[in-house]
Design a protein that fits this description.
single chain, alpha/beta, Rossmann fold, seven-stranded mixed beta sheet, two-stranded antiparallel sheet, globular, binds nicotinamide-adenine-dinucleotide, binds zinc ion
Amino acid sequence: MNILLAGFPDSETTGAGEPSQAERAEVLTVPLGTNSYEIHLGPKLLPQLGHLAARCVGGRRGCVVSNRSVARLYGSQTVETLRQAGMDVTLIEVPAGERSKCLRQARRLYHQFLAAGLDRASFVVALGGGVVGDLAGFAAATYMRGIDYIQVPTTLMAQVDSSIGGKTAVNLPQGKNLIGAFHQPRMVVADTDTLRSLPRREYRNGWAEVIKHALIADADFWALLEASVGPLLNLDTACVGHAVRRSCEIKVDVVRRDEREAGLRAVLNCGHTIGHALERIAAYGHLRHGEAVAIGLAAEAHIAVSRGMMPAADASRLEALLVAFGLPVRVDAPEPTAVIAACEVDKKRLAGKTRVPLPLRIGSVTIVDDVKPDEIREAVAHISR
Ligand SMILES: NC(=O)c1ccc[n+]([C@@H]2O[C@H](COP(=O)([O-])OP(=O)(O)OC[C@H]3O[C@@H](n4cnc5c(N)ncnc54)[C@H](O)[C@@H]3O)[C@@H](O)[C@H]2O)c1
Ligand SMILES: [Zn+2]
């Protein structure tokens, strides 16, 4: 027996012709009244998209929005399955990268939706990572006052985080996600096989949000992650499927209780106050979102330890797990005043209060609103190389 897999579903095939437990797709429900939807996750799901989509969108006409590299890998398969289900679909490509999450690209999409004949009964499929999901979701939220969309996330980051919860957005030159809308998808179809083509750095990037979910909500899941780093990094189907599912369940549970981020949903921002601040400082523009969050988690855990709220041993375990997944926990010394100023941007948005989720121990988090500039300064020293 492979002890590393203890607690994860069995990878072996169960019987002739039957899918193994690892190969079975799972369905989670996001219970939001009339905005409820299903998340289908597991391997071999993309070819079933047409059949699944036919159940949840009203009309038959739609656009698949993707970026060039993802379209090259999965575009024709996606269009094919939808056409086989009787849908009339057009594939639209946007340039890859965060820069395409902008109003200019949203406008381009509106024009292309019109040219493709989309009306209020039509739908959009967002095929790609969080950038495509946020942009296509935003275009769907605003085109003709809102049309249906389906999230087909193809990065780990998008499968465990950005495709769930209905937050859609584009960036302004002044900051990320400044224009946006809450618009829940009609369905999420996360085919874990698509993770196999992800560049390693993008794959590791997504684990930061999985680790965050375990940190804030589930010590058992945490222990499983600690025990299974190897199989998870090697894309063991059963292990990855289980981890993606548990991570989604944690996010769903928070979103279900606070759809519009009135309070509780802020716990999902653990590691993001300082993580976002680093992303805002130009010198750290090379950091992927998950990498910035990993450093942010290390910094914010340090604040929690300094306050006597979190055992130092738990903060060490947090850093060790992030490092085991190939994520950074240190950066070239940032200028503390720049980090403090960048944290202030969030504060302005929240009517003068920075609500910072701080871990209490592995599996538990609380929200405080009195983090002082000196605490940020000390946390910055901690994460500085
Ligand atoms: N809406 C939310 O709740 C939420 C939550 C977290 C992050 N986000 C947003 O998500 C974005 C980051 O998302 P991301 O990390 O997925 O980055 P991304 O969308 O930029 O994708 C990363 C790269 O991976 C490539 N790629 C995608 N899928 C692939 C595949 N299967 N095989 C090969 N290459 C593939 C893409 O072309 C891209 O170059 C940010 O804009 C962030 O603000 C939103
Ligand atoms: Zn995040």
